[in-house]
Design brief:
732 residues; mainly beta; 22-stranded antiparallel β-barrel; 5-stranded mixed β-sheet; 47 strands; 6% helix
Length: 732
């Protein structure tokens, strides 16, 4: 870490020196427009922190997946259990305590789990127009799950022709990365007429096994791999190159089709079709588990992860008594995921398939009342139908029989109504207040054929009231100070109530139908200041406490604390409203114009969380990442953009590891006392984009130049070693 601090101090010295220059080119201002709140609003008018990732930043950084795309912000920590994955951590929260939206449509389903999730990789970074992260609770607008933050993905909006001729434009792009032998191809085309427009995007990714760096803990090396045989006699072979993480390869393709129609200036219709599908891919961290000196699993794969969304958005801009703008969204999504596992030298393969049909309807309004009030209000309805199937297969005969399903057959509904008011007290003071009432309904039917559950159904029908109160103070055009007090909730979903799975060796999670919503209470303070024309600073502090937290705890089934599961006597556990948790932290950002061509920026994130254990003691929160950040120096001149940057993260000693993480020694390094811990790390990276002309440009990069071997906190996958990236783009 000393090298990291040396680099930061060196660049900061350049900032101080640069203040003597009289450069008239400004850094990022405070009046950026964002849409993460469902409406176009000035960022400076909002009492909470929002980070934006532009299309230009995406093109320069060339992230391989949408999870990697989020890390471009420098404010989101990404955990990976396998290469086909990426679970964001924001302000000490993750998984189903974060909300994903695509073009304003809720992506979270009733089976979004508390364990790490990889649904974000279904999104196509090439089809993104902008990505925004709204930090902190925002259940007033978005309902359940918006506790730690909201990730808002806006895909490309089809553009109309500006004259009588048909407009045609598009991109052809190809990329190669050396660390995983990536081969990516992308094509998109836009067609525009006066009232109609179309956008088509197709992407394909082929990722090989990922190579880790050469300098780092030996515990991360992959010295073996398993070759499955179909007679129950599997082979454990020595990995000829222990830096290559076998098995971690997978492929993926994405298709996006959008059509837009505007009959006049008052109406705008947009239809979007999105489809994503991966190949089977191995859950790499499970392939690290050992039993009796041998790998525990011969197979542990996720089946193809499929996501489809059909969405219709209707906007009306005719000012009337009820609204100035109205947006209606209808959406249907279909999700499919599966798990295929088999113990080493065992002929029985377990296949678990989950499908969710998700329907949603939103209608949102805004209305300006007089000169001081602006109302935002709306209603939402969500219906998720969960179908879960279990299959047990004998690999020697191919015979399949019914097996236990991961989830009950269930449906989950959410009905919400909200109102938010922005009141301009003076030219310098803006007050924002909002309320939302949400009713959530769950019905589940349990099959007792395989497990002796003492119940056959579960029904939940409860409500949640959340609110927010914020103030923005702008003493001048260069200052913004804000504070926000807000609450959020997460209603129990099908994953909480009805899941059966092995969480770790020797433990099994069983259903618990007696749950209620968990609530978060948050306060944050934000400062943004532009000094002169070439220096910007922003600082956010926050404190969040969670009550009735839905956590995994020891449990009993028919009076027994242990049952046989997967051939092993396992401790019975269940999700319960059994804990309180707190998270607090600081987010710090700097952007400085060093000269006409040079810009420096840095983002630093500190968060600390504690969670209550069964015995009343405190444990560090699992999803509170260690200190992390990114510092960048960017040079832009005519056709060339060049960026050198460093990413870094502090270590987590054994004493700072959550209890749950201590039970996964296979993914951690070992300290001098023989205990698992997460070492700190840094990378030095270089990216460049050269535009030969309006049609042709090349992007290239060298990541992890010093070839560090590191594993981000809580990840099963070791990060890429030295990685050369080259991409070629042709625009037409």
């Amino acid at each position: 870490m000393k090298r990291i601090y040396t680099i930061i101090l060196f660049v900061f010295s350049g900032i101080i020196y640069s203040q003597t220059e009289q450069d008239t080119i400004k850094v990022t201002t405070l009046d950026e427009v964002v849409v993460a709140t469902k409406w176009k609003q000035k960022k400076e008018d909002l009492p909470y922190k929002i980070a934006s990732i532009s299309k230009e930043a995406i093109e320069l950084q060339n992230p391989q997946t949408a999870a990697d795309l989020l890390s471009v912000s420098g404010k989101v920590f990404i955990q990976k259990s396998q290469q086909g994955g990426g679970s964001p951590m924001i302000r000490g929260f993750a998984t189903n305590r974060l909300l994903y939206t695509v073009d304003g449509v809720r992506m979270n389903t009733a089976i979004f789990r508390g364990g790490n999730i990889q649904n974000v990789i279904s999104l196509d970074g090439f089809a993104m127009e902008n990505v925004e992260v709204l930090f902190g609770p925002n259940s007033v607008i978005y309902g359940s799950d918006a506790i730690g933050g909201v990730m808002s993905f806006q895909t490309v909006k089809p553009k109309f022709s500006t004259n009588e001729n048909t407009s045609v434009s598009g991109n052809v792009f190809s990329r190669f990365s050396s660390a995983n032998d990536e081969k990516t191809g992308h094509f998109d085309v836009q067609l525009g007429w006066k009232k109609w427009a179309s956008y088509t995007s197709i992407s394909y990714n082929d990722f090989g096994d990922l190579r880790m760096g050469t300098h780092g803990p030996n515990e991360y090396l992959k010295t073996y791999y398993v070759v499955p045989n179909f007679d129950g006699s599997d082979e454990v072979l020595t990995n000829e190159n222990a830096l290559v993480q076998k098995p971690s390869a997978y492929t993926q393709y994405n298709v996006t089709q959008k059509v837009r129609f505007a009959p006049n200036e008052n109406w705008d219709f947009q239809y979007g079709f999105h489809y994503s599908e991966t190949s089977d891919y191995s859950r790499y961290d499970r392939h690290l588990r050992m039993r009796n000196g041998l790998p525990r699993y011969a197979e542990w794969n996720y089946g193809p992860q499929k996501w489809m969304m059909n969405a219709l958005e209707i906007s009306n801009f005719a000012k009337g008594n009820l609204y100035d703008e109205m947006t209606i969204r209808f959406a249907y999504q279909n999700f499919e995921e599966s798990r295929i596992s088999r113990n080493l030298n065992n002929v029985n393969r377990e296949i678990r398939i989950e499908k969710v049909d998700a329907y949603s309807f939103n209608i949102d309004f805004n209305k300006k009342i007089g000169t001081k009030n602006k109302l935002f209000y709306g209603v939402e309805y969500v219906f998720d139908k969960v179908n879960s199937e279990g299959i047990d297969e004998d690999i020697t005969s191919g015979v399949q029989v019914e097996g236990p399903a991961r989830y009950p057959q269930a449906d989950w509904q959410s009905i919400g109504i909200y109102l938010n008011d922005q009141y301009t007290i003076t030219d310098k003071v803006l007050l924002s207040a909002g309320l939302r009432y949400n009713q959530y309904i769950l019905n589940a039917e349990f099959d007792t054929t395989f497990y002796p559950f003492p119940f056959t159904e579960a029904k939940l029908n409860d409500g949640a009231l959340t609110g927010s109160l914020g103030v923005v103070y702008k003493p001048s055009n260069s200052w913004v100070l804000s504070s926000n007090v807000s609450t959020a909730f997460r209603s129990p979903n099908v994953d909480d109530v009805g899941k059966v799975f092995d969480s770790e060796p020797g433990s099994v999670v069983v259903p618990n139908p007696n749950l209620k919503a968990e609530y978060a209470y948050n306060v944050d303070f934000n400062i943004a200041k532009v000094f002169g024309s070439n220096f910007k600073l922003d600082l956010s502090t926050y404190y969040t406490w969670l009550e009735d937290a839905l956590v995994r705890r020891d449990y009993t089934l028919n009076g027994s604390s242990q049952i046989m599961y997967d051939g092993e006597l396992s401790q019975v556990q269940a999700i319960q409203n059994a804990a309180k948790a707190t998270v607090y932290g600081v987010q710090f950002g700097v952007e400085a114009k060093l000269s006409k061509d040079f810009v420096f920026s840095t983002d630093l994130n500190f968060q600390k969380g504690e969670e209550e254990l069964d015995n009343g003691e405190k444990s560090p929160s699992r999803h509170a990442a260690p200190f992390f950040g990114v510092s960048r120096l960017t040079f832009t001149h005519e056709k060339l953009e060049l960026q050198i940057y460093t990413q870094y993260s502090a270590k987590k000693d054994y004493e700072d590891l959550p209890e749950e993480e201590r039970g996964k020694p296979e993914i951690y390094a070992i300290d001098g006392n023989g205990n698992p811990y997460s070492p700190g790390w840094y990378t030095l990276n270089l990216k460049t984009d050269y535009k030969f002309n309006k049609t042709f440009n090349v992007t290239a990069g060298l990541e992890n130049i010093t070839d560090q071997r590191y594993r981000p906190y809580s990840s099963g996958l070791v990060a890429p070693g030295r990685n050369f990236i080259v991409g070629v783009r042709a625009k037409f």
